[in-house]
TrEMBL record:
Record key words, sorted: DNA-binding, Transcription, Transcription regulation
Name used for this protein in its record: Uncharacterized protein
Classification via InterPro entries: HTH-type_LysR_regulators (IPR050950), LysR_HTH_N (IPR000847), LysR_subst-bd (IPR005119), WH-like_DNA-bd_sf (IPR036388), WH_DNA-bd_sf (IPR036390)
One Gene Ontology term of the molecular function aspect: DNA-binding transcription factor activity
GO cellular component, one term: cytosol
Protein backbone atom coordinates (compact mmCIF):
# COMPACT_ATOMS: atom_id res chain seq x y z
CA UNK A 1 0.00 0.00 0.00
CA UNK A 2 1.33 3.43 -0.93
CA UNK A 3 0.14 6.89 0.10
CA UNK A 4 -1.70 7.47 -3.18
CA UNK A 5 -3.76 4.31 -2.68
CA UNK A 6 -4.52 5.34 0.88
CA UNK A 7 -5.60 8.80 -0.25
CA UNK A 8 -7.85 7.33 -2.94
CA UNK A 9 -9.36 4.84 -0.50
CA UNK A 10 -9.98 7.62 2.04
CA UNK A 11 -11.83 9.76 -0.52
CA UNK A 12 -13.97 6.89 -1.82
CA UNK A 13 -14.92 6.02 1.77
CA UNK A 14 -15.92 9.65 2.38
CA UNK A 15 -17.74 10.14 -0.92
CA UNK A 16 -19.54 6.79 -1.00
CA UNK A 17 -19.16 6.39 -4.77
CA UNK A 18 -16.29 6.13 -7.25
CA UNK A 19 -17.82 8.88 -9.40
CA UNK A 20 -17.98 11.47 -6.58
CA UNK A 21 -14.49 10.58 -5.37
CA UNK A 22 -13.05 10.87 -8.90
CA UNK A 23 -14.58 14.35 -9.25
CA UNK A 24 -13.11 15.49 -5.93
CA UNK A 25 -9.67 14.05 -6.72
CA UNK A 26 -9.74 15.00 -10.42
CA UNK A 27 -8.75 11.42 -11.24
CA UNK A 28 -10.37 9.17 -13.84
CA UNK A 29 -12.96 6.85 -12.34
CA UNK A 30 -11.38 3.84 -14.05
CA UNK A 31 -7.96 4.62 -12.55
CA UNK A 32 -9.50 5.15 -9.11
CA UNK A 33 -11.41 1.85 -9.30
CA UNK A 34 -8.24 0.04 -10.36
CA UNK A 35 -6.27 1.43 -7.37
CA UNK A 36 -9.01 0.32 -4.96
CA UNK A 37 -9.02 -3.18 -6.46
CA UNK A 38 -5.21 -3.36 -6.14
CA UNK A 39 -5.43 -2.28 -2.51
CA UNK A 40 -8.04 -4.95 -1.77
CA UNK A 41 -5.82 -7.53 -3.46
CA UNK A 42 -2.87 -6.50 -1.26
CA UNK A 43 -5.00 -6.66 1.89
CA UNK A 44 -6.50 -9.97 0.89
CA UNK A 45 -10.10 -9.04 1.63
CA UNK A 46 -12.84 -6.75 0.36
CA UNK A 47 -12.85 -3.22 1.77
CA UNK A 48 -16.11 -2.17 0.10
CA UNK A 49 -19.47 -3.71 -0.61
CA UNK A 50 -20.56 -2.62 -4.09
CA UNK A 51 -24.23 -2.02 -4.86
CA UNK A 52 -26.40 0.20 -7.08
CA UNK A 53 -26.27 3.01 -4.49
CA UNK A 54 -22.47 3.09 -4.38
CA UNK A 55 -19.67 1.81 -2.13
CA UNK A 56 -20.23 0.83 1.50
CA UNK A 57 -17.37 -0.08 3.83
CA UNK A 58 -17.05 -3.69 4.97
CA UNK A 59 -15.93 -4.41 8.57
CA UNK A 60 -12.36 -4.63 7.23
CA UNK A 61 -12.95 -1.38 5.39
CA UNK A 62 -14.09 0.34 8.59
CA UNK A 63 -10.78 -0.57 10.22
CA UNK A 64 -8.85 0.67 7.22
CA UNK A 65 -10.90 3.89 7.11
CA UNK A 66 -9.94 4.76 10.70
CA UNK A 67 -6.28 4.17 9.85
CA UNK A 68 -6.51 6.19 6.62
CA UNK A 69 -8.17 9.13 8.37
CA UNK A 70 -5.38 9.42 10.93
CA UNK A 71 -2.68 9.08 8.27
CA UNK A 72 -4.25 11.85 6.19
CA UNK A 73 -4.58 14.13 9.21
CA UNK A 74 -0.97 13.44 10.25
CA UNK A 75 0.19 14.25 6.71
CA UNK A 76 -1.59 17.61 6.92
CA UNK A 77 -0.04 18.25 10.33
CA UNK A 78 3.43 17.44 8.99
CA UNK A 79 3.02 19.92 6.13
CA UNK A 80 1.98 22.63 8.57
CA UNK A 81 4.97 21.97 10.85
CA UNK A 82 7.40 21.93 7.91
CA UNK A 83 6.01 25.28 6.85
CA UNK A 84 6.73 26.65 10.32
CA UNK A 85 10.32 25.40 10.09
CA UNK A 86 10.67 27.59 7.01
CA UNK A 87 9.55 30.52 9.08
CA UNK A 88 6.09 30.64 7.52
CA UNK A 89 3.84 31.36 10.49
CA UNK A 90 0.69 30.10 8.86
CA UNK A 91 -1.83 27.32 8.96
CA UNK A 92 -5.53 26.59 8.66
CA UNK A 93 -7.83 25.83 11.59
CA UNK A 94 -11.10 24.17 10.57
CA UNK A 95 -13.90 24.89 13.03
CA UNK A 96 -17.53 23.78 13.15
CA UNK A 97 -19.73 25.44 15.73
CA UNK A 98 -23.19 25.88 17.15
CA UNK A 99 -24.57 29.19 15.90
CA UNK A 100 -25.22 30.62 19.36
CA UNK A 101 -21.53 31.15 20.20
CA UNK A 102 -20.32 32.31 16.78
CA UNK A 103 -20.95 36.07 16.73
CA UNK A 104 -19.69 36.74 20.25
CA UNK A 105 -17.40 34.19 21.92
CA UNK A 106 -15.97 32.46 18.86
CA UNK A 107 -15.41 35.51 16.66
CA UNK A 108 -13.83 37.49 19.49
CA UNK A 109 -11.49 34.55 20.14
CA UNK A 110 -10.55 34.38 16.45
CA UNK A 111 -9.90 38.14 16.46
CA UNK A 112 -7.62 37.87 19.50
CA UNK A 113 -5.78 34.90 17.98
CA UNK A 114 -5.19 36.53 14.61
CA UNK A 115 -3.85 39.67 16.30
CA UNK A 116 -0.79 37.62 17.27
CA UNK A 117 -0.89 35.04 14.46
CA UNK A 118 -2.13 36.86 11.33
CA UNK A 119 -0.84 34.12 9.03
CA UNK A 120 -3.31 31.56 10.39
CA UNK A 121 -6.64 31.36 8.55
CA UNK A 122 -9.90 29.76 9.57
CA UNK A 123 -12.59 27.69 7.91
CA UNK A 124 -15.87 27.99 9.83
CA UNK A 125 -19.06 25.98 9.43
CA UNK A 126 -22.23 26.57 11.46
CA UNK A 127 -24.24 23.38 12.05
CA UNK A 128 -26.15 21.48 14.74
CA UNK A 129 -24.66 19.42 17.54
CA UNK A 130 -25.13 16.03 15.85
CA UNK A 131 -23.38 17.22 12.69
CA UNK A 132 -20.57 18.86 14.70
CA UNK A 133 -19.74 15.53 16.35
CA UNK A 134 -19.85 13.78 12.98
CA UNK A 135 -17.55 16.36 11.35
CA UNK A 136 -14.93 16.03 14.10
CA UNK A 137 -15.10 12.22 14.06
CA UNK A 138 -14.73 12.12 10.27
CA UNK A 139 -11.74 14.48 10.33
CA UNK A 140 -13.63 17.16 8.39
CA UNK A 141 -13.05 19.66 11.22
CA UNK A 142 -10.18 20.22 13.67
CA UNK A 143 -12.33 21.71 16.43
CA UNK A 144 -16.03 21.51 17.21
CA UNK A 145 -17.99 23.78 19.55
CA UNK A 146 -21.28 22.06 20.37
CA UNK A 147 -24.05 22.61 22.86
CA UNK A 148 -24.24 19.58 25.17
CA UNK A 149 -22.23 17.34 22.89
CA UNK A 150 -22.17 13.59 23.43
CA UNK A 151 -18.81 12.17 24.51
CA UNK A 152 -18.41 9.39 21.95
CA UNK A 153 -15.58 7.07 21.02
CA UNK A 154 -12.75 9.00 19.29
CA UNK A 155 -14.04 12.33 20.66
CA UNK A 156 -12.13 14.26 23.34
CA UNK A 157 -13.50 17.30 25.18
CA UNK A 158 -10.75 19.90 25.59
CA UNK A 159 -12.94 22.54 27.21
CA UNK A 160 -16.44 22.69 28.70
CA UNK A 161 -18.08 26.02 29.51
CA UNK A 162 -21.23 26.18 31.59
CA UNK A 163 -24.02 27.78 29.54
CA UNK A 164 -27.36 28.02 31.30
CA UNK A 165 -30.50 27.19 29.33
CA UNK A 166 -33.11 29.92 29.76
CA UNK A 167 -36.45 31.18 28.62
CA UNK A 168 -35.79 34.45 26.82
CA UNK A 169 -38.45 37.13 26.41
CA UNK A 170 -38.99 40.84 25.88
CA UNK A 171 -38.86 43.05 29.01
CA UNK A 172 -42.62 43.70 28.66
CA UNK A 173 -43.54 39.99 28.63
CA UNK A 174 -45.42 38.58 31.69
CA UNK A 175 -42.60 36.08 32.34
CA UNK A 176 -39.94 38.81 32.52
CA UNK A 177 -40.51 39.34 36.25
CA UNK A 178 -39.99 35.66 37.08
CA UNK A 179 -36.85 34.60 38.95
CA UNK A 180 -37.07 31.08 37.52
CA UNK A 181 -39.63 28.98 35.69
CA UNK A 182 -40.63 25.38 34.94
CA UNK A 183 -41.03 24.22 31.35
CA UNK A 184 -44.67 23.30 32.03
CA UNK A 185 -45.53 26.98 32.62
CA UNK A 186 -43.53 28.06 29.55
CA UNK A 187 -45.68 25.87 27.29
CA UNK A 188 -48.64 28.12 28.05
CA UNK A 189 -47.10 30.83 25.82
CA UNK A 190 -46.18 30.93 22.12
CA UNK A 191 -42.81 29.18 22.05
CA UNK A 192 -39.81 29.14 19.68
CA UNK A 193 -37.31 26.28 19.84
CA UNK A 194 -34.52 24.81 17.68
CA UNK A 195 -35.20 21.97 15.26
CA UNK A 196 -34.27 18.35 15.97
CA UNK A 197 -30.51 17.74 15.83
CA UNK A 198 -29.62 20.75 17.98
CA UNK A 199 -28.35 20.15 21.51
CA UNK A 200 -30.93 22.52 22.99
CA UNK A 201 -33.77 20.63 21.32
CA UNK A 202 -32.46 17.29 22.60
CA UNK A 203 -32.64 18.57 26.20
CA UNK A 204 -36.11 20.05 25.69
CA UNK A 205 -37.44 16.80 24.23
CA UNK A 206 -35.98 14.83 27.15
CA UNK A 207 -37.50 17.23 29.70
CA UNK A 208 -40.89 16.88 28.00
CA UNK A 209 -40.59 13.10 28.04
CA UNK A 210 -39.72 12.97 31.74
CA UNK A 211 -42.49 15.40 32.73
CA UNK A 212 -44.97 13.96 30.20
CA UNK A 213 -45.45 17.32 28.51
CA UNK A 214 -46.73 17.80 24.98
CA UNK A 215 -44.52 20.16 23.00
CA UNK A 216 -46.44 22.47 20.67
CA UNK A 217 -44.06 25.14 19.40
CA UNK A 218 -45.13 28.22 17.44
CA UNK A 219 -41.74 28.29 15.71
CA UNK A 220 -39.13 25.59 15.10
CA UNK A 221 -35.97 26.83 13.40
CA UNK A 222 -32.29 26.10 12.77
CA UNK A 223 -31.50 29.82 13.10
CA UNK A 224 -30.48 31.30 16.45
CA UNK A 225 -31.13 34.81 15.13
CA UNK A 226 -34.75 33.79 14.53
CA UNK A 227 -35.04 32.61 18.14
CA UNK A 228 -33.68 35.95 19.35
CA UNK A 229 -36.01 37.91 17.06
CA UNK A 230 -39.06 35.85 18.07
CA UNK A 231 -38.57 36.97 21.68
CA UNK A 232 -37.37 40.50 20.90
CA UNK A 233 -40.44 41.29 18.77
CA UNK A 234 -42.81 40.11 21.47
CA UNK A 235 -44.20 37.19 19.45
CA UNK A 236 -43.60 34.87 22.38
CA UNK A 237 -40.70 33.30 24.28
CA UNK A 238 -37.67 31.32 23.12
CA UNK A 239 -35.65 28.61 24.84
CA UNK A 240 -32.01 29.46 24.27
CA UNK A 241 -28.69 29.62 26.12
CA UNK A 242 -27.38 32.68 27.96
CA UNK A 243 -24.23 32.92 25.86
CA UNK A 244 -26.38 33.09 22.73
CA UNK A 245 -28.01 36.33 23.94
CA UNK A 246 -25.18 37.78 26.01
CA UNK A 247 -25.20 41.16 24.26
CA UNK A 248 -29.00 41.49 24.28
CA UNK A 249 -29.11 40.71 28.01
CA UNK A 250 -26.38 43.24 28.74
CA UNK A 251 -28.25 45.97 26.82
CA UNK A 252 -31.61 45.13 28.41
CA UNK A 253 -33.23 44.23 25.09
CA UNK A 254 -34.05 40.74 26.35
CA UNK A 255 -34.66 39.09 29.72
CA UNK A 256 -33.46 35.56 30.55
CA UNK A 257 -35.36 33.42 33.08
CA UNK A 258 -33.57 30.22 34.20
CA UNK A 259 -35.42 26.92 33.77
CA UNK A 260 -35.82 24.77 36.88
CA UNK A 261 -36.33 21.34 35.27
CA UNK A 262 -33.39 19.15 36.37
CA UNK A 263 -32.70 18.04 32.79
CA UNK A 264 -32.39 21.68 31.67
CA UNK A 265 -30.21 22.98 34.51
CA UNK A 266 -26.92 21.36 33.52
CA UNK A 267 -25.82 22.42 30.05
CA UNK A 268 -22.53 23.40 28.47
CA UNK A 269 -20.66 24.48 25.38
CA UNK A 270 -18.28 21.62 24.64
CA UNK A 271 -15.05 22.19 22.69
CA UNK A 272 -14.08 18.88 21.11
CA UNK A 273 -11.34 17.37 18.95
CA UNK A 274 -10.51 13.97 17.49
CA UNK A 275 -8.86 12.30 20.47
CA UNK A 276 -6.53 9.92 18.60
CA UNK A 277 -5.02 12.71 16.52
CA UNK A 278 -1.90 14.75 17.30
CA UNK A 279 -3.16 18.26 16.71
CA UNK A 280 -1.29 20.74 14.46
CA UNK A 281 0.42 23.58 16.30
CA UNK A 282 -2.08 26.16 15.03
CA UNK A 283 -4.98 24.05 16.35
CA UNK A 284 -3.36 23.57 19.76
CA UNK A 285 -2.65 27.30 19.98
CA UNK A 286 -6.25 28.16 19.14
CA UNK A 287 -7.56 25.68 21.72
CA UNK A 288 -5.51 27.55 24.32
CA UNK A 289 -6.92 30.85 23.05
CA UNK A 290 -10.47 29.53 23.46
CA UNK A 291 -9.73 28.67 27.10
CA UNK A 292 -8.02 32.02 27.73
CA UNK A 293 -11.03 33.88 26.32
CA UNK A 294 -13.40 31.87 28.52
CA UNK A 295 -11.29 32.67 31.59
CA UNK A 296 -11.18 36.37 30.67
CA UNK A 297 -14.98 36.42 30.48
CA UNK A 298 -15.17 34.86 33.96
CA UNK A 299 -17.40 32.08 32.68
CA UNK A 300 -17.73 28.88 34.68
CA UNK A 301 -15.34 26.30 33.22
CA UNK A 302 -16.32 22.68 33.86
CA UNK A 303 -13.32 20.98 32.22
Amino acid sequence: MDFTQLRYFHEVARAGTIRKASERLNVAASALSRQIQQLEHQVGMALFDRNSQGMRLTPAGEIYARHAKLVMLDEERARNELAELKGLKRGIVRVVSAEGVVSDYLMQTIAAFRASSPGVSFQLGVIGTDDIIKAVKNGDADIGLAFNGRLEAEIEFRLQIFDRLCVVCAPSHPLAKKKSINLREVLGYPLAIPVTGFGIRTLIDEACRISRLRLNAALMTNCIDALRAFAFNGIGVSVITQLSVRRELASGQLIAVPLTNPTLRHSSIDVMVLGARRQPQAVEAFLKQLRDEAVARKTQILV
